[in-house]
Amino acid sequence: MANEDDALEHERASWKPSPGLAVAVSDPVRTPDLPPHRERMTDKDPAAMKRAVRTVYTLFYLSVAGSIWAVAAYMLFPIESGSIVDIRYNNLFVGLGIALALLAIGIGAIHWSKAVMSDKEFVEPRHATRGRDSVREAAVQVFDDANEESGFGRRTMIRNSLIAALAASVVPGITLFRGLAPENSPENPHGGDPVYLLSHTMWKEGSRLAHDPEGTPIRAADITLGSAVHVIPEELAELHHDEGYLEEKAKAIVLLMRMPPEDIIESPERADWSYDGIVAYSKVCTHVGCPVALYEQQTHHLLCPCHQSQFDVSDGAKVIFGPAARPLPQLPITVDDEGYLIARSDFTEPVGPSFWERH
């Protein structure tokens, strides 16, 4: 064995590439550190190869079926109905369909590479590429050889089923996008206008600020320095089991914070939007809509956990770091005769991500 290894090393040391771009040597490589190449069953038995090919394209067509089922489940269990059962089944069956589609593509591709594609190792000597016509022709030959070895051009059932599976796998995602905003209808003429939808929430003049989710009104005297409280309109808690509750809550959620009044930098037009150091800002990040709820009481910074946008609550919730495009909308607040915190009005600008600003 030692003499054989020495002979291989001597052969490698004495080898020199021939002029021009070398192509693959026809003899398989024999690596001393590995056992001799062992043929697969599909290499020795044509029937086994046919079974492997059938398995691969069956998996790809199974992926197509998974994609179609995800689209069908999205329509069979519409989340717009507001039913918790429909929402649960929508998430379950759409997720299972997409998972099946992607898993079948992955397993099929792996089985294709392991059982159908060429399984022999070859030496391919190389030298510096010079961009000559012969080099370009050799590069084309490499692609032709790779196509022949993979069987992509020759095995039409595998190729066509893979293309169908990949094309179908994006259909569920496209279908899901239609639910991002409701369409215009006689009952909802502004349904397709995101600016209108995000400019109007359940907050109105006199709405009491209440704890989320129980709906208990909040007294200004109960808010301590450095605290951060999750807030919803008091009226929203009464709609907990009604249709549209989640949509209204998604727009109306607020974070209430208290800091020393002298730390607040207020513009003249917002001089009466806070109360004794208490400020209220939308929790919906202006980047992609994640809940902004990580408050640093020493720096008065709010952090979005999704993409690390930071907002300075003491200075109008301005963006000081991250991809958010604009400050968090501020909810004007004051107190009523009983000392409860109330809203002066709705938000004066749209809440949520700024995608609607792109035309």
List the uncertain runs: 11-15, 17-27
Strand content: 5-15%
Mean of the pLDDT scores?
Answer: 83
Number of distinct helices = 10
Q: Please state the oligomeric state of the protein chains shown.
A: single chain
Helix content: 25-40%
Strand arrangement within the widest β-sheet reads: 1-2-3-4
Using the CA coordinates, give the radius of gyration: 32 Å
Tally of discrete structural domains:
2
**Could you say which overall geometry the principal axes of the C-alpha atoms support?**
elongated
Largest sheet report: 4 strands, antiparallel
The total of beta strands comes to: 10
Distance between the termini: 73 Å
Structure notes:
The chain is an alpha+beta fold. It folds into 2 domains: 2-180, no CATH class; 194-357, Rieske Iron-sulfur Protein (3-layer Sandwich). Helix content is 38%, strand content 11%. It has helices spanning 2-14, 41-44, 46-76, 84-116, 133-150, 156-169, 171-177, 194-199, 234-237, 245-252; strands at 209-211, 228-233, 254-258, 278-282, 294-296, 301-303, 310-312, 318-321, 333-335, 341-343. It has a 4-stranded antiparallel beta sheet. The radius of gyration is 32 Å and the shape is elongated. Mean pLDDT is 83; it is low at 11-15 and 17-27.
Describe, in short, the structure shown.
It is a multi-pass membrane protein. With 359 residues, the protein is α+β, with helices and mostly antiparallel strands.
Can you lay out the helices and strands and say which pair or pack?
Elements: H1 2-14, H2 41-44, H3 46-76, H4 84-116, H5 133-150, H6 156-169, H7 171-177, H8 194-199, E1 209-211, E2 228-233, H9 234-237, H10 245-252, E3 254-258, E4 278-282, E5 294-296, E6 301-303, E7 310-312, E8 318-321, E9 333-335, E10 341-343
Antiparallel strand pairs: 1-2, 2-3, 3-4, 5-6, 6-7, 7-8, 9-10
Helix pairs in contact: 3-4, 3-6, 3-7, 4-6
